[in-house]
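testing teh design pipeline on a random one, pls ignore if ur not involved
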């Protein structure tokens, strides 16, 4: 714990000063130079700090900058999406969500609730399997076909008709169709969703709408899909520069 605390202190000190030499770090934190050397070497090897070959001073490394960039992207996509989801709820009078994928799960980043309550309502920060909601399927479809079947297997989707139907639907979503998930883990609630991608086609999030299954007739589904496409275009238009600039492998 002591070594971890010292490593964090060093990162915070370098972040504040932007550029510091070994002796300055040791002196400011009151850490023995030999201990400082060990911690600095570990942080450099891990990518949290970088050492300039000429000045021999330390600055923040690419790993820290990557973490900061991901945090800012998440904060920005939520801020961009909030007014769009508010308009979406007013337009269709159905509850709307912004979700992001984390591994084999989706995380609810924001929600706007309509006047009519659902049998179950996801809370902010709640997680679900990526295969259980339309938002998850929209994100999964953008990862690439090679990842689909392994993800379904890890999420417990049985091989056979159910997996085949989901794989066929993922192909449709990858080609631009609106993702759809019939009631499953969430009884009596169906969901529809579209992914939000940046200028490089990297998926940042998905915007989804949850509707009681008994009310989702063809006219309402068409209306929801049209409203989702408008919301997708509004958010994506403002989010072009956010997130990683290369698709993940």
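output:
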């Amino acid at each position: 714990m002591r070594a971890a605390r010292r490593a964090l202190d060093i990162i915070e000190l370098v972040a504040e000063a932007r550029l510091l030499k070994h002796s300055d770090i040791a002196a400011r934190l009151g850490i023995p130079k030999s201990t400082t050397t060990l911690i600095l070497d570990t942080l450099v090897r891990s990518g949290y700090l970088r050492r300039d070959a000429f000045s021999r001073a330390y600055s923040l490394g690419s790993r820290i900058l990557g973490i900061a960039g991901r945090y800012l992207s998440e904060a920005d996509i939520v801020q961009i999406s909030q007014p769009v989801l508010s308009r979406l709820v007013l337009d269709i009078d159905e509850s709307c969500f912004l979700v992001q994928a984390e591994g084999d799960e989706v995380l609810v980043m924001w929600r706007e609730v309509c006047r009519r309550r659902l049998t179950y309502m996801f809370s902010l920060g709640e997680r679900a399997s990526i295969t259980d909601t339309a938002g998850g399927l929209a994100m999964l479809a953008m990862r690439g076909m090679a990842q689909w079947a392994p993800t379904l297997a890890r999420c417990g989707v049985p091989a056979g008709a159910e997996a085949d139907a989901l794989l066929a639907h993922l192909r449709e979503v990858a080609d631009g169709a609106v993702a759809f998930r019939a009631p499953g883990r969430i009884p009596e609630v169906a969901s529809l969703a579209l992914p939000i991608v940046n200028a490089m086609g990297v998926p940042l999030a998905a915007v989804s709408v949850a509707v009681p299954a008994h009310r989702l007739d063809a006219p309402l589904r068409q209306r929801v899909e049209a409203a989702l496409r408008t919301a997708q275009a509004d958010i994506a238009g403002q989010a072009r520069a956010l997130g990683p600039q290369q698709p993940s492998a």
